[in-house]
Amino acid sequence: MRVQLKIFSVLVALVAGLVFAVPVAAEKLFKYVDEQGNVTFTDRQLSSGEQVSARQVEKDAPEQRFFIHLRGSRSDGTLQAVNQYFGPVEVRLEMKEADNVIADRPLPIRFVVPARDELAAANVRQDKKFSSFSYRYSYRVVFGDPAARHEPQRPYRAPVPAGQVFHISQAFNGKKTHDDDQNRYAVDIPMSEGTPVHAARGGVIMDVADDFFIGGTDDELGHKSNYVRILHDDGTMAVYAHLKLETLQFPIGTRVVRGQMIALSGNTGYSSGPHLHFAVQKNVGMKLVSIPFRFADAERRGFTPRKGAVVVVN
């Protein structure tokens, strides 16, 4: 089913250096009762008191791990780009409005921030002293380095457990939901909730979402799918989506190998039924696009996924 993950834009207004903060949503709401009968609700587990309930709290969107903030004085500062993802991102920074403000380089600009790194995007300063000033800037962020080239050394391992037979229900150019750039070359593999999902290719877990628990065909669920995004050595990325709540086996930043179990399948996000959505993507022109790939068959020969095809790992 359709999966749209983490191509996000942010519009930030600064007036005399005012910056913003992004609130962090709670994942669970815990209820505790102490010896005196006092009740406490918190989003953290406590060491004291008796826990009487824990309720899953729905989040609005996957956690963002990239931001730009102002460093320095209000009249002379640096827009610092901070990338907390375990993979590179490309950024487009644009000045929307500027009143009595000068940037040290022409905007808009595009640049790549490496994994777990930060850099100075632009210096901004007040032009005329003792006069009011304000400015607004916006930025878009896309996963991946546009210089990446898809160069797999062998066909992808089907992301299913060994010894079981599965069938592809939707493949490349699927008319139901595989009709946009991110999903054109994706595959859907129906499987029961809780089925082990395995890495089709080795790489680093670049980003994850693990806190969603609702699935259905409401458009509002499009960004509420649990997933794992794995960065390959050639710079492309694999996405495994609609995973079951809190079943990721490794933390972000872990390097996994081909065939390693990474999570359990589920039915979260925009989904008409339990299945795994798998795609290989790269950044092209500040846009995530899916790219064709081949699965290995039971004899380890490569084949192009098609609707109804059998996927099995011996």
Polypeptide structure, described:
- The protein has 314 residues and is mostly beta strands.
- Helices cover 0% and strands 44% of the residues.
- It has strands at 8-15, 28-33, 39-42, 50-56, 66-72, 76-83, 89-99, 101-103, 109-113, 117-126, 134-143, 165-167, 187-190, 196-198, 203-209, 215-216, 226-231, 237-243, 255-256, 261-264, 269-270, 275-283, 288-290, 295-296, 302-303, 310-312.
- Strands 13, 15, 17, 18, 19, 22 and 23 form a seven-stranded antiparallel beta sheet that branches. Strands 1-11-7-9 form a four-stranded antiparallel beta sheet, with no helix packed on it. The chain has a four-stranded antiparallel beta sheet with strand order 5-6-10-8, with no helix packed on it.
- The protein starts with 7 loop residues before the first strand and ends with a strand.
- The model is unreliable at 1-9 and 13-26 (pLDDT under 50).
